[in-house]
Specification:
Blueprint lengths: L1 E4 L1 H18 L6 E4 L13 E5 L9 E15 L1 H7 L14 E3 L9 E3 L7 E3 L5 E3 L2 H9 L5 E4 H10 L3 E2 L6 E11 L6 H13 L4 H8 L7
Parallel strand pairs: 1-2, 1-3, 5-8
Antiparallel strand pairs: 3-11, 4-9, 4-10, 4-11, 6-7
């Protein structure tokens, strides 16, 4: 069974559920790859793909399920805040050293800024450091080298243990969607149906919303 996962999210959030699935179905042999490129589910012969981001519409031959959107927050280390102070509003952000995520084509991921009822704005800025790997970006922010806008699924542990601080909670913004994708020609096979159901029940991209659901509350949107 061929499965492709996003590199960082796959390791941090999909691997444990996938290992549970493998233990439950020992007769299935998963072949798992990790990549951040948008694989072609059909051309690459995938049974199931997990993806963050992507188009709003998928090809007719591809089945999909939306599993929520990530939440983005602005983070900095306590030591960085002690040296430079914390920004109070979005207009203050360009004055601070930024740690950015860099794409393979050389561009950087813009910040998504939304204040109150204002429309979402994508802000391109110059960064002090640019990383093409999300965990390295987090490490630089934890080291106090700058601030960054990061998804909560990536920094939930650091926020909880205090090594990072949510510096502008009023600017918490909805980020990219999480989807699982599969070939429609294979969607009725038992292995695909089983893994789809397992991922729909276990994958989470918004820790706060998932905790609310687990506690019997209403998920955040």
């Amino acid at each position: 069974m061929r499965i492709d996962l996003p590199a960082t999210f796959g390791r941090m959030n999909v691997l444990a559920p996938l290992l549970e699935f493998a233990a439950r179905y020992p007769h299935i042999t998963p072949h798992i790859t990790y990549t951040d490129r948008f694989v072609d589910v059909i051309e690459d012969g995938m049974d199931l793909v997990v993806r963050i981001g992507g188009d709003d519409a998928w090809p007719a031959a591809v089945g999909y399920r939306h599993l929520g959107n990530e939440q983005l927050i602005f983070c900095a280390a306590p030591a960085f805040i002690a040296r430079h102070g914390a920004p109070q509003r979005a207009a203050d952000l360009p004055a601070y050293d930024a740690i950015l995520y860099g794409r393979a084509d050389g561009s950087t991921q813009p910040w998504r800024i939304q204040e109150g009822a204002a429309p979402l704005a994508r802000q391109h800025i110059n960064g002090r450091m640019v990383f093409g790997q999300a965990e390295s970006q987090v490490a630089a922010v934890v080291a106090g080298l700058g601030l960054a806008q990061l998804p909560t699924w990536l920094v939930d542990q650091q926020i909880r243990d205090g090594s990072l601080v949510n510096i502008l909670p009023q600017l918490t913004t909805q980020g990219l969607p999480l989807h699982i994708l599969w070939q429609r020609s294979r969607e009725h096979t038992p292995k695909v149906q089983a893994l789809r159901a397992h991922f729909e029940a276990t994958l989470c991209i918004n820790p706060q919303a998932c905790m609310a659901v687990a506690a019997g509350g209403v998920p955040a949107v």
